[in-house]
Amino acid sequence: MAISPAAGHRDAVVVLPGIMGSELIESATGRVLWGVSDPRWYGSAWTTGDALAKLHVTEDERAGRTGRIRATRMLRFPAFAPVLRGFEPYRELLRGVRNNAAHPDAVLEFAYDWRLSVAHAAAELAKAAEAHLQAWRAHPQGSRDARLTLVAHSMGGLVAHYFVTELGGAGELRTLITLGTPFYGSVQAAGLLATGRGTPLPLPRRRLRALACTLPGLHELLPGYRCVKERCCAYSQLTAVDVESLGGDLELAQRSLDRQERLRAAAPLPQLRAVVGVGQRTPQSLTLAGGTAHVQEYVPDGGTCADRRGDGTVYRDAATLPGSPAFYLPQNHGSIARSEEAIAYACSVLTERPLGPPLGATELGLYVPDMVEVGRPCPIEVDLVDNPAAVVCKVFDLAANLEIARPWLTPHDGSLYAEVPLPGPGLYRIEAKSGGFSAVSQLVLAVAPDE
């Protein structure tokens, strides 16, 4: 007996990655500038800087003369940036979505140049989505009444939202599924622009800051909510002048904040289904002084302050829109689109089968530094644990694709704690798991002491 696919299967699906989530190549040479297969490349790139110089946005690109760099596909291999931490590949997400579509041809992988503005990427998305929808409606396995379903990670959700609300995409949209999208920005972006101003700083973070100050895409992630602490429980919104004082670009900051102002005034989006990362230590507010930003892990809550946490990059209340249902998942920002639960949720929305949290699932928070020196132990902290004895921690060398350690976690100041030496320069994944949710993971870059 033939089994008909569920109604959601008949849609044309577009999958969008987050910032730094697309492979970029130099058009003239075909050289891969971002998204290389060898994770050891990131240690060299962030310390020498030669490989990253081509990623800086030029005046020509800001003026709209693009094409020097092309996005070819979504990440197939782990990537890393200091402060922003790791970016996991999208293989599992793409596989899950394709397996739940009416046909693999119903799914479009939309890579975009994440260095440039949300508006630029959304204009490209509008053309690609329209062509994909028409091709799918004419496909032998397609449907003439098919509509668009967008599945977007992080900044990809901002691109999708701009396409839907400002470029007329709402008329063809059935559902927008976002995974860790910073609808109201991230304090991490403001902190990154100010990182190291007037203070000694490891070379990789200096390289990132120099790159970030040229990127419209990074400025798009600036926080648009009341996050600047003036005095006790008195907060104001970040301004473009504030961003300029931190070393950012005044024009790029104003564009981003203007876009967020339009977002606040826009009508509700009933098609939105947001996966929101929770349980991780997350910058939520900041203080400004002397051209520097100091981030804090709390926001105002009535007459006091509260730690709302989030996915380590986006705090939980910034990752969805008012009136939209949210699926809360304890996971880090760079790993959320790789997690089994987020993929299962996206597929359940596609097929219109609601999905609840796994049996036995508990919230768990993982904290590790973004970088460590080889020869120094890497600290690992795990908190929000109901059953400490059930927590398992693992360390993987991504270059060797090998598990290299299972640190023993011991109680320390209300959390669980371990230290593990990383054997050499390169990229490592640290995982912690307890209960029914998949492991919370984070990428760490190990660098030589003189780097």
What labels describe this entry?
single chain; 451 residues; alpha/beta; Rossmann fold; Immunoglobulin-like; six-stranded parallel beta sheet; five-stranded mixed beta sheet; 11 helices; 24% helix; 28% strand; globular; disordered N terminus
Could you explain the architecture of this structure?
- This protein has 451 residues and is of the alpha/beta class.
- It folds into two domains: 1-356, Rossmann fold (3-Layer(aba) Sandwich), CATH 3.40.50.1820; 365-447, Immunoglobulin-like.
- Helix content is 24%, strand content 28%.
- The strands form eight sheets. Strands 7-1-8-9-12-17 form a six-stranded parallel beta sheet, sandwiched between helices. It has a five-stranded mixed beta sheet with strand order 19-26-25-21-22. The chain has a four-stranded antiparallel beta sheet with strand order 18-20-24-23, with no helix packed on it.
- Strand 25 (426-433) and strand 26 form a beta hairpin.
- Helix 3 (91-99) packs parallel to helix 11 (340-350).
- The longest helix is centred in the N-terminal third of the chain and has 20 residues, at 118-137.
- The model is unreliable at 1-8 (pLDDT under 50).
